Structures are given as structure tokens and as C-alpha cells.
Queue: 4 jobs
Job 1
Amino acid sequence: MGDVSPPAQTHPAATQALLAKLGPQVVLTDEAACFAASFDNMRLSFMPEAVVRPATEEDIGVTLKLANDHRVPVTVRGRGTGTTGACAPIKGGWVIHLDHWDKIEIDPVSAMATVQPGAITAHINDLAAPHGLFFPPDPSSVKHCSIGGNIATNAGGLRAAKYGVVRDHVYALEGFLPTGEKVRWAAPLRKFVSGLNLRDLWIGSEGTLGVITKATIKLSVLPAARRTFLLAFRTDEAALEAAIDLISQRVNPSVLEFLDIQTVAATEKRRGQRVFTDAELSGSAETHAALLVEIDGHPAVLADDAAKVLAWAKRHAVAFRAPEDPTEAEALWELRRTCSQAMFALGDAKLNEDVVVPIRSYVALLRFTREIRDRFGLATPTFGHAADGNFHVHIMYDRFNPEHCRKAEQAIREVMEKVVELGGAITGEHGIGLAKSPFLTLQHTPAEIGAMLAIKKALDPNGILAPGQIFEPFNVWEHRPIKVTLPWDKH
């Protein structure tokens, strides 16, 4: 089953007071409700004392004010798709669960949407599409994740290089300070510069600075056409050098995904078939690296870009596919969608770090991951967004093998040190949470961390919101994940 921490009843009087104020329909204390709110996709469980499912905004204010009075830890939760443990209530206390706050209103004239934090990101696009609009940020969990979580982590996704990250698409936020006061940052306007920009301070703060109850987001014009290309390369280096060449030609792909040889091999094993046939690979049975490319836009512009991509593919790839039929193009995405789960063919546990490096360091990073693989004897499959340098480096290991755990700990630290040495970032879209907290000091100086903590103290003087996250080192490899099947596991 893994490690499940029992609910620590450290604030029974406060929980009873909360029940008395909001009632048992809002405040849940049964074991099933608490367990369901105790973990995210990292699957480390920390049981809360109560789960608050607010019916009104007033319920949120009451919860936060009572939490401050009694110094009860509070964690905010959406759909639980995050991968760093950021919504796991590591200090117990109460969870404010907002997955049922999922209203979506589309304003097609202003090209905006007003959304509640529990709205599933894909559902926003479902409602925007009939108006010729869409919300560009595209996390791989788009069919399951909520917009509140996207905002809390400043999510990016596959289309970030062309369309930007979530911060680039948020006009205004409403919600509560940790102390329980209602606030609104900016307004549903295209321009707003009144006062300090605390809206952007909330974006990417991982639920540590406030509770989002409503967001006004920017929608973009839905591209009229798309083309998808899948390319095979003999080596990881050849694939990355080809990606750099495409970027240098000023072709601006909406998607440029890299899959190293280890990733393609694991994916082929999971799918039970080769990505490219031996005939397509000129009779070679060797596993290959891959690039998945998508371009979008007006058909006239797309035709010109498609010609450039085809010429580029012929120069660099040992094999490629460029279907014009949308159904055939959609089938190419199966390779990328199965990457995450395919990793478990290489180990029963993984440390997954969404690092970012400059373009000049792509090849150096991949070579270093292979060096780590060879030196520690642990698989290091790497895939991700080659258009913006945001790669997902995995260390695969056996959670029940103490030697594997020791090696995984050392290996991931060396990867993070290398990333910073290369001028990169320890996270590009997942955030810090618990998973990356041991590496925060690699990225930031004491002065920088001190400034962050000063802001946290100013907004959350009693330290009740998401305590234990980001700033307190937590060693993931010392804990066993729980065994649960989540809705996205089958994808």
C-alpha cells in the first residue's frame, strides 16, 4: 500500500468549532474523504484532520480566519494532478478542496473566460472552441487538471514556446489572503497598472500566498489549421541538434517534443510495437530518438512553414512521417502521451524533474544524463519541450531497494547541480512543492530566499497556508508512495 500517515488530531477543538460553523456537509472528517485529499500525483500521503468543501466564498473566509485563530495548517487542493506534492497536507490540518468550483463563462467578444479554480482546463477549450477561441497553455494532464492548479504552478505544457505559460494568459484573480480577507488582483481588462502587481505574485506561488476563487483568463484565436510531423534519429545528439537547427530557421512550431532513445524504447515496450518499422529505418532494428513537431496557423502561412519543416526533416531524420489527414496526425501523439507511464518499464519508482536549460546546453544535459545512467546503473529516460529547453529528466529505481534509493538520491542531486551549472532552472512548470525543496538553495541565494520568506510572512503572518512546502527540505526518496489508480493512469 505504501506509506500512509495517520490523521494527526492535533487541533480537535478547532475542527469541532469549524464543524459547528459550517456543518458536516461542508466539513468532512471521515477517513475516506481525508485519504482522498492526502496526496497528489506524486502519491505520498499525509492525512489531514478535515476536508472543507466550501459551498460559498464565506465558507472559505470562515475557514481561514478560524485557522489563524487556532494556528491550524491549511492546504488548498484542486484536482490533484500535480507531480511535486504541492497540495499534499504534509503538516496535517485542514484541506480546502475546490474541485467542485468549476463554473466557466466565455466572453467571445472580449476573448476572455471567467473561471472558477476547479474548472478542468480541457473543458475551457471545449466551451471556447465554438467561438473560434482557445486557452493555449497545454499541460499533458489537460484533460484532468484544473485551472486553479495551472495558475498556482504557472503551468506551461507542450505549446509554451509559441504561446507562453499560464502567467501570459491571466488578466485578473480573486480570492482570499491567508488571513481570510477577500481580495481582487487586477480586473477583467486588457490593461491594468493600478498599485503593485500582486496578481503575478500569486501566479506560481503554489498555494502558499492565497486561495484563488475566480480567474479571468485570456483566450486566443483558434488556429485554422495544423500539421504534425514525427521524426526518427539515430542518436539523441542528432535529434537535439536538429531541433536547434529548426529553431534557428525562425520556424516557430507550436510543439517541438524530444524523446531520447531510452524513452522511445520504454514506450515501444509499453505499446508492444515499434514506432517506425525496420523498413522505414532502412532495415535497422536499433531503437531511435524522436522529435514530434506541430505547426499551426493560417493555411497559407502553414503551407510555407510545412515546406520548410519537410525540407528540414529530409536533411536530418533517418525516417519521418508527415500525414496531412488529421486522424493520422492524431495517432502520432500516442507516442508522446504514453511516455510518462512507459517509464515504469524501467523501474517501479521515479524521480521526475522538469528542468530547463539554455539552447546551447541541450546536448550537454543529455550527455550528462547518460553519464549518470552508466555511473549509477539507473535508467535516465528524458523527454520534453525542446522548443523552450524544458526537459523532464527521470531517475528510475526500485523503491524497495535501499541501494537504489541511495543511488537515486545522489543521481538526482548531481543532475540538479549540473542544470544550475549549465545556466538552467530546477523547474520550468511543475513548481517546487516537496519534490524539489532540497534543491532550492542550488538555484537561489540566501538573500533571494530571504526575500521570498519575507513576502510569505507579510501575507501569511501565522504561517497557516501550505506550511512545509517549498522552503523546508523534504527527501522524497525516503518515503514510499501509496498504490492507487488515478483517472489519468490509463493514458
Job 2
Amino acid sequence: MKLPKINVKKLLSYFLFWAVSFYIALEAFSRTGEVRTIDVIYTFLFLLPFVIVVTIHSYHFIPNYLAKSRFWLYSLSMFLLILFPMSLYHISFRYLSEWLFPNYYLVGVYTPLEVIGFAILFLLVSSSLEFARSWFEGVQAKNRVAELETEKVASELKALRAQVNPHFLFNSLNTIYNEALKKSQKAPELILKLSEMLRYVVDKMEEDQVLLTEEVAYIRNFVELHKERLNDPTKVHFILDGEISSQKIAPLLLINFIENSFKHADLTDENAFIAIKILVLGKQLTLTCSNTFFIDSPRTQNGVGSGIENAKRRLALAYPNRHSLEIKKSESTYNLELKLELD
């Protein structure tokens, strides 16, 4: 049989409440100025009915009725519970006192209405303390949940940012290698662009926000390196419009959408293209990506790929209620528009 879990804090506060109540009652009943044995016994017998009533209320009625919104059953039970101390008070001074303390003559002097009044008082005070303790524990629990959620979001963002496409790195190195074999003057420039990109990934991946100018520079290098691999680089258009000053953005956020255009684009046709535009108006950034695609490509058949899903997840975590993403497909063109409220 599994024993119920004991709430140590609740138990300690419960004992403290009755210790204080015992001390106050003992002072009230000690009429000679000093505490005698009979005063201690009388206080014990007086408080015992209320201890039983408060315990039933705290450990049964609150968790099983009130906490479960069974208000009618709670109200009826409370009505009966308030009447219960009269019988317990009579038993305490009539039978229990004779059995436990036969050498003392002890008489209960309070009327049934007074006993009910004391019961209501103890129930009100103990309930107030119980609700205060529960509220405080609830606040602590919410804070812990908020901290865990923050840590979870940070971990997810870090993991999503770390998903840099290795194919781009391999293709860029192959392009640079081919240029180096031809002893082209482009090789050092391409190495510098790739080096700047890798340094950006390493240095900025851990940060929550980076300057928009740094993110745009990374994207520009990405586009330029891709264009070097194409037979006709003029089919790729990259436009930056608007004023960039001190705006900030989550690092490596836009690259997923841009990379997707290059990954699935069909540039074999004469009218094929990739068009990327970043428009910045104050704190509002709009990214549009358009590209022609292969009609029978897996993307056409299966829909949005993992790169876009990755980016959507990052948007939901980093910019909740501060972005809109629209993806449309025409007969042979994909169009994506992302609007983002920057920091």
C-alpha cells in the first residue's frame, strides 16, 4: 500500500498554528499569573475539539471538496462541521477528562453558541493561513514553471540556430577549390566571405539579438557565394531597401527562408529566377522570396520542407504575435512574404 505524500511545510505550519493557539489560550485560562498543571490540562481539553474540526477541514474538505469545485457538498459539510464541536466539547470535558485526568475536576463552561463561535473563529483563521500558504506556493510554482519555460525556449532557440546546413559549406568549399585550381583572383575574396560567415555563426549563435546590419551582411555573403556556383548569376536578384540603423534581430533567422529558395529553385529555364528583397521601414522588416521551381520536385509533392518548419518554430519562440508569414504557390513559382516587428 502506497502511503500518501506528506506536505512537510503544511504540517509544520499546522503545528505552529496550534502551538500559538495553545499559548494564547493558556495565557487566557491562567488566572493566577503562573501556569499550573490544571491550566495546561484545561487548555488541552478546550482546544482538542477545535483541533479535530480544523484538521478535518484542512486535510479533507479543502482538497476533496473546495479544491475540486464541489461547492454544494463543501457548504453542506461545513454546516455540519460547525455543529460538530458542540458534541466534541461535551465529550472532551465530560468523558475524556475523567478518563485521562481523574484527579482533576474540570467542567466545560462555554455554551453551545460560544463553542460554535470558537469553531468558526478557528476555521476562519486556519483557512486564511491555509489559503495564504497555498497562494504563496502557487506563486512559487508559477515562477518555477516560468523559469523552466524560459530555459526551454532558450535551449530550443540555441538548438535551432545551430542547424547550419552543411551542404552549403561543402558546396562553397568546392567552388573556392575550383577557383583556386584556375588560379582565379576570386578565390581569396570567396575565402574571405566564407570566413566572415563562419565567424558570424560562431560568434553570434549564442546571442539573443544581433544588429540587423550584421545579419544582412551574412545574408549578402550567402547570396554572393551561391551566385558563384551558377552558370548565370544574373538570374539571382538581391535587393535591400530602407534604412538600417540600430535595429536588432534574432541571429540566423532569415537565412532559412533564403536558403530554401536556392535549395529548391529551378534556374534552367531562360525566364527562371530567384528574387530576394529585404525592406526595412523603421522597426518593420519585410522579407520576400520568390523563385521558379521544378514541377516534379519533392517540395512540390510534399509541401514545405524542414528548413521552413525550423524557421517557423524559431519565429514562434522569438517573435510571438509579432510576425506574419505567408507562402503562396503559383503554377511554377513559390512566393514567400515574412513581416517581422524588430526590436
Job 3
Amino acid sequence: MGTLKAKIIGTGSYLPKRVLSNQDLEKIVETTDDWIVTRTGMKERRIAREDEFTSDMGADAARAALDDAGMSAEEIDFILVATMTPDYMCPSTSCLIQKAIGATKAASMDVGAACTGFLYVLATAKAFVETGLAKNVLVIASEKLSSITDYQDRATCVLFGDGASACIVSAAKERKGLELSGITLGCDGGQADILVIPAGGCRQPASNETVENRQHYVKMEGKEVFKHAVRRMESACKECLELAELQEQDISWLIPHQANIRIIDAMAKRFKHLPPDRIFKTVHKYGNTSASSVGIALDELLKQESLQKGERILLTAFGGGLTWGAAVLTSTGDV
């Protein structure tokens, strides 16, 4: 039978229609368009409707990925969902999406790795496919960050937006796609307190006090997060390239987590052989959409650019936990 090689054979994404611009934020908190653009690179972000949830956006992204792959939902045998904003604590968001898209033969589970979530579920899908535990895995990252954003905190409320991304991971030899040539993941739980949602879990269950103290929103130590993000993503990229036996010069595109333009630019300076126009950015349009950001950017890149056989994309992300990772995707044909 030979060694199974996991590859992405279809991608999709979904973004809510409502746009929240910097000018809109000027009316909500004490900030300015110039301040936001200078420090984050963000001009607008998308916000889900009140009746639009993480599972809804994930299902829409999943349908787009299935269409791109030319597959039906019944061909999926496993669904993996990365999110830090699930519809419920129980049941899992992946179960809700399984029903929504009609993937009646699929098992499912959620994975929590904050902004690195897309890479964590991608790695899990690769393991399932290459060990023969699944044939076609639907990978989804979906976030309704507006539900955990404190719009009284100007340091964080300008950063986050909503959205979802998805891809189909398969070992089908006859299909062209993006082979998962190498993935590396990391974690440092010793830094868990610099990016956290304090209440809502068993440590601080919801109460009048936790609600009044706004403890159900994201709390972040921005300077510390910045420092770790740049260093961890750079090291993850180098480790991943080494694992794949590649050099920086072998990479055609870099897609970093769309957290902040300063983080992206600081990352870019670490890549001496990659031109600035080969670092793909969506942060100005969508802000930080956490787990879904890398997948949204990947879907946009593939829709805009024609990849030739052998071209490679390097993905990297960093998030709360702390978590981080990187992955190399190699085109197996014109994509």
C-alpha cells in the first residue's frame, strides 16, 4: 500500500457581513484610527450577528471547503474543530457542525489551543490520515471573538474579529493538493497567565461577581505576548524547516498568524531570503480572528495565486497557553 501522505485537497473560509471599522471603534472607546493602524495595522474587522454562532460560521467554512474539494459531507469520517469560543461547554462545537452539514458518518471532537488551534488540528488530522485511522478529515477553525471581547478595554477591543476557516485533509493519491511536509508544535504552560479568560471554567464558575468584574472577557499582557510571539514563531519555523529538510530559500510564501502588524513585521525581518511581498497578510481587513486566521489567509492565498508543483507555504501561529507551531505545505500539482 505504501506510506500514506496527508495533504490538503480543499480549503474554505467564512467571514460575517458586518464590518466594524476603526471609525466605529472611535465611537465606542477612547481611541483613534491613526492609533489603531500605527500599532496594529488593522483598519476593520468582521463581527458576527447576534444570532450567528461559532458552529454556524464553521459549518459555512466547511461547506466551502467541501465544494472546493468536490466532496460530499458523507465522505468525511472525522471532524476536528479548533475554537476558544465554543457554542457551549457541552456539547462540542464539532458535534453541532457535524449535524449542520450532514456528515452522518463522521466522528468529531474539539481542540483548544487558542490562536494556534488551526495548526494543532492540522497536525492531528495528519496523524489520523497517515496512520490509517481516517481517510478524509474535515479541519475547521471558527471563532466568535466578539462574544469574549471587552468593548470597554481599548487595549484589546480593537484587535479581535470573527470568522472561520476549513480544509479537507486526505491521503487520496490521485488528488492534487498541498502535502503536509512537516509540522511542529510547542507549549509553555508557565506563561498561561499573560493571555487568559479568567472566569467561566471550574476555577471561577460564572457568578454575579465574575460578571460584574468583567472576568469573562479576554485579558492580555500585550508587551509580554508580543515578546513571546515573535520569538516562538521564529523558532517554530526554523524547527519545522529543519524537520522537513528545507532551507528558508525553499519557501514561496509565509503565512503568519494575523495577530498584529508589528508582530508580523518583526517576524518578517527574521526571514532574510523571503521578499516582503511573499508574506501574506489579511490583518488589515479582518483583525485577529484567533484560530481561524491562518486558515482564512491560506484560503485567500490559494484563491488569489496559482501555485506550481513543488512550491511551498510556511504557516506559523502563536496563542494563549502559551501555544505555538509551524507547518510546511508543498504543492503536489498546480493548485
Job 4
Amino acid sequence: MLHSIPTDKLGPFGEPMAHAVQACVHCGFCLAACPTYRELGQEMDSPRGRIVLMKEVLEGKLSWAAAQPHVDRCLGCLACEPACPSGVPYRDLISPFRALAKTRLQRSFGEKLRHRLASQTIPFPARFRFAALTGRIGKMFPPLLPRALRPMLDLLPETIPRAQSWPVLTRAHGERRARVALLAGCAQRVLDPDINTATIEVLTRNGVEVVVPKAQGCCGGLAWHTGDLAAAQKFARRNLDAFPADVDAILTNAAGCGSAMHEYHLVLRGTPDEARAETFRKRVMDVSVFLMRLGLRELPVGAAGQQRVAYHDACHLANAQGVVREPRALLRVIPGVQLLELADAHLCCGSAGTYNLDQPEIAASLGEQKAKAVRATGAEIVASGNIGCLTQLRAHLARQGSPVRVRHTMQVLRDAYAAALTHPKTP
């Protein structure tokens, strides 16, 4: 028993949660890194403050309801982890705590409805496409929409792209250098399916054979980060079964998905699938990391002239997976690209799954600030590695009347390869 937390009464999460609490020395280095502390200025809306609250709840000294508002405001961006000199594994605390809280808290009807709609649409591309198309119509009649749904609908693009599908197997161009399996994602397949198309094109062009398993499903991140443990476990098991063993890596091109899959061992802790999840997560890798380790066989030529590209660090890529260098290195490979950095790059853009639904004011403020930071660079393109960030950036840049194009790193790289055909080098 650590810090008087009754770990034996908290199920399989008790021990890692208690260790996370114990590791915190309350130094306060996390405060400057935390977006909600910067927004609200309250100790209880900082990682240090939330750890104290969660500790008090787990020890039975504070009610779950008292801690709820502050825990709900956490983006789960994990900016506190790289900022922490003590190495507090905050991710081992926040999602398990939410899973425990789900059965102990009384939510309002509106909150239940909002979570139900999100959980039953976003992880299922066909349903989400239908909901998105319906939402586009609903935006024309805002008074008829429930107020709680308006912030999320505001993020929908002006047009929903046509559905795309990908072969189970796409062979490498030329000699095969590697074989990978790709997670296709959920929201990404609806909001910007070209990201997957671009990813497959870049991989195959560099000698990589790509498998897109038909039986795969949602990564489970949305469920896991909102405390729906049963759903998260179901999604995790489905992917454990769906992805083949005869691949060099399981690739993701969405930071949130990659982060969730890296936590399958925690999602399935205490179950017969825990060991399998531990093995699986070690094979998961962001596509930018895989390409940098493999090395580009074919360098892009790039478009004519200079191109100013700002890079936005997706929280679950930079903070959760420690991937910072690789996307930038890929963009720098493109001739003519001037890579630009954002002010306060460590701060979350406010996307964070359903955060726009749950905390619309904070999400909108963070999105506005991030869009202003992008505009301040003078970039023509802003690139990132997560569909949530791209959607948030696109919406807020549009609101500010900015012409900056929002692209995934793989789209920028694919476009540079394509430019070689349009603008061949003259001898």
C-alpha cells in the first residue's frame, strides 16, 4: 500500500496508479507545461493539483464528485510528462482514474447523451460519415441543434471528402525492403482519407509492402481516454487478433491512435491478454519513425521555388511517444522547404478527442491561440501528424481568414514526390 492508497481495492490499476502518485514530489515544473493551468490559473487544474485530488479520492478522503470537474478538464495531452524531473507516469494515472470514476459518478442527462453519441459514431467510420453528413445539414439550422453538439459540428469541414478504401495488400515499388501493417483509423477515414492514401504511396515508393487488415477496428483511444474501459478492451482485443505477425512493424499515422495502441498493456492489465498486448505494443510505430529508421530510398524532388512549412507537434506524438525529430527530418529532406517552428509549441491545440464537446470554451481558446501561432510564422503550410490536430487547426485558421493550408506530414512528402513528375529537373 503506497501513500495509504488501498491498491488491493482498485483492481489491476491500483499498483501503477499508486506508483504514479508516489513519484510526484510536487515540485511544480509541470505547471508551465499544462495548457489548462495556463488557461485557468488554478492549482487544481494543473497536473500536480490533479494528482493531489486523485490521491485524496483514492484514499477515501475526498468524494469522486468533488474531483470530477478538475479531472474532466484535463486534456490528457501529457505535456507534463517530459516537463517532470521525477518522471511521473501521469498516463498511468489519468485514464485508469477515469475508468474507475465512470462507475462511481452520476453524470447529467446531457453529458450521458453527448458521450453516448460520440462513442457510438466516431469509432465507426460508416456511422461517423453519416453523422458528419447529417451534421453538415444541421449546421444550416443552428437553433435546432442541441447546444452541447454545436462545438463539435463547428469543426466539420465545409465538405466531407468522398470515401476511400485501400487494398488489403499494396506491393512495394521495386525491390521490397520491408513489410508493414497500417492502422487505417476511424475519424481520419471520414474527415481526411487522403492521409492514408498518401501514407501508402510514400511507403510503397520507398520499397515497403503495406498490409491494411480488413478485420481491424478503432484503436480504442477515445474510449480509453474517457474512462470506458470495457469498450477500450474490446477494441484492443479486436486489433490484437486482426494484425498479422509476419510484418516488420505496425504503423500508425495518427498520434492519438499510436499512443492508445502503445497503452494496450495498461488497457488489458490483469486480463489473459496482457502479455499479448505487451508484445503487440512494442511493434507499434509512427510512420515517420519507421521511414527515418529505414531510410528514404528515393528522395523527393519538391515543387519549384521555396515553400514555408510550419510544423505543429501533436501532443500524443511528441509527449506520449517522444516523436519530435523524425517528422521534422522528413520535411527537411524536401528541397525548397523552409521549416518553421511555432511559439509555445509544447501547448496543446485543444483537440484531444471529444474535448471540444466536453470543454468547448477551453478547446476554442487553445485552438485560437494555436492558429495565431501558425499565422505568426508566415507559413504557407502547417503540417502535423494527427487528424484531431489537423481538424482543429483547419477550423480555427478558417475562422481567422487565414489561407494557410493544413496537411499531414505524409501528404506534404507525397506531394513533393508527385511534384517530381510535374516539375522534372532540367539537365
